[in-house]
Amino acid sequence: MTPINLSKELRKQALDEIKKYFLEKREEEIGQLAAELLLDVMIEKVGAAIYNQGIRDAHTFMSEKIEDLYGLEK
Q: Which of 4, 19, 63, 73 would disulfide-bridge 47, Cβ 3.0–4.6 Å?
């Protein structure tokens, strides 16, 4: 399977959110390296499942739209 890669901007945003979560919810400050390692593990362990759910959702959406097209037949 092709690895999941985030753009620089999206990766930075995710890292900022991880650090914010730890600070606000756990009252812990974590450093950049800890946030990067956590993000990498999350992507490795659940990234494919999230991606696959997106594919299933897109398939369902497109299937419904195709069915709508059949309704336009005369």
A: 4
Cβ count within 10 A of residue 30: 17
Report domain extents, the chain: 8-70
pTM for the full model?
0.77
Distances (CA, A) of 1 to 15, 51, 67: 24, 12, 31
